[in-house]
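Minutes, project check-in
Item: structure for the 687-residue chain
Input as provided by the requester:
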Amino acid sequence: MISDKVHPHHLERKAMLYVRQSSAHQVLHNRESSALQYAMRDRLAALGWSEIEVIDDDLGRSAAGGVQRAGFERMVAEVCLGKVGAVCAREVSRFARNSRDWQQLIEMCRVVDTVLIDQETIYAPRHGNDRLLLGLKGSLNEYELDLLRQRSLSARYEKARRGELVVSAPVGFVKAGDHYEKDPDRRVQEAITLVFDKVLELGSARQALLWFHEHDLDLPVKGKDGNTVWRRPNYATIHRMIENPVYGGAYAYGKTAVAASHGAAGVKARRKARADWLALMPNAHEGYVSWERAETIRKMVSSNVPTSRHHGAPKHGDALLSGLIRCRRCGRKLTLRYSGARHDIPRYSCSRGWMDNGEPRCIAFGGLRVDDAIEDALLAVVGPGAIAAAVAAETEAGQRRDQVRDALRRDLEAARFAVDRAFRQYDAADPANRLVVGELEARWNKALAHAAEVEGKIAAHDANMPAPTADLASFVTLAADLKSVWTAPSTDARLKKRIVRTVIHEVIADIDQEAAEIVLVVHWIGGVHSEMRLPRRRRGQRNSTSVDVIAAVRQLVLIANDDLIAGILNRNRLVTGNGNRWTRERVTSLRSHHRIPVHKPAEDGIEPWLQLNKAAQFLHIAPKTLRLAAEAGEIHGSHPLPDGPWIFSRADLATSAAQTITERARRNPRHPTGSHPEQQSLFSSMT
């Protein structure tokens, strides 16, 4: 019986049958549902329609509103043009499960007088009761979908809280029911273990990445098809392994949340704080590292971000306190910059407030003296354990395998397996089928070339291996002189900074203007605090010449010119403030800077200051006699340098003490006597 809601003008237009299922799994497996939907064509024919169009473009697409449905949009467009007399679906929920699409369809059908048909009845949107019923059904359809989703998510979350929900396995793991298991490929296992070892050894994910690039080693990643492939590593590959608790043997779920965006980005995921995760269960399965070690590595990498709470990663610069020193006045971290001709002189300054907010600068001071003081205090702390650490390091070095060679050996084993498989495929092919044999031969040659490349890497690595390390006795000797090891040019600055951060939590700095001192409060790991006060140097004072050298030059100019003074200073192994040897020009510059007069011979030939030989000749005694008397304090004489000349004043040589020495030398035959006044010497001596 034809319904009274279907009129001739409806039958003059075509009818559209809408067929939809929500997922591809339903399309493949729910065949009965598809058959029932297509059978609605017979119902339309029974109602009188001869022209029936089936729209099944949206098979496998949800009607919840999150995806675009081309078939539904085409159907609505046909309705708007007035070409459709009826739209049909087995259940009206097939049309839409969201209010926006549902109300749009109902309103368009009302305007152009199109009826909606399902397996139960016919709806005329122009009738108030039918429109009310359609509105209720649309709301119920949307609510039903939300209820199903809520039930599904609740069941999913309960399973996750029990640690039994395994959605996907990261590289290095495979799904085994409701838990993770390690990938059986030993090459994958050892490569992932090597990542954690190198990050812990080098102190940062970036340094580990550079190490892998330096040795041209690949790492496993998950391909689009879920299979493991080997690629050149990038920073994200290593950082994801460190941040993922699965590698530490823990089960984790709910690490991200969906955040809606009103811009072009649309819906995107954001990371949640660890306290907000749905589940975190340590020791849930076998990991590549222990949970404690994984947490240590994660916190170390997180602290490498230079924020107010973290120190930042150790850099190549020589400044020990980069990221560790804080201003006592404003609480901000001190910034670091390098100056000097070679940009190797650190300087700490509290200028962040000035740069950000235009505030006055707090404090600033040179970093060389501060670093030296911290270095001495640190060596005093770690010194007692240096020998034990050296013995442990030698033992560990003897037991440690060559990690690079082991990784290359695993790559070679995999390459040889690929060669063998390519050969077996080539050997099993029919020689007459040249199309297949040619391709298999090319694959075989490519595998052989790759194996030869890996063998070349191993040979180059063996050729570049360093010589064996020193014996245990040498390690103990170096540990006893830890200062030499610390200041050696070959010692990596990053390693020294990591040692500093191991024992020092923070350094609070201030300047005492009245005392002209730098005040440092060192917060050691463990809660102990110590205060240091260092004199604040003027700019350039660190590279100035030693005060002892300046005092020696003041005395040497009494008897010697600049050439002789330079020779005397070099003979005593003294250097300039910059570590250079002395020359006449440098002595001249030193005198000019400190206003030391130049040596000028007396115009009348009577020198007011005499060296040892001339003074002994003046007293008519042997130089040794005069030197012994000066050393005994019987006569005043200056000896500014150990391997330098003695200097005597002519006025002191005319005193009664000098005459007493002369008379005693002449009376005592055991004392050496002087030479004849007119006797000349072939060699002039400065001593």
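Outcome recorded: The chain has 26 helices and 22 strands.
No further action items on this chain.
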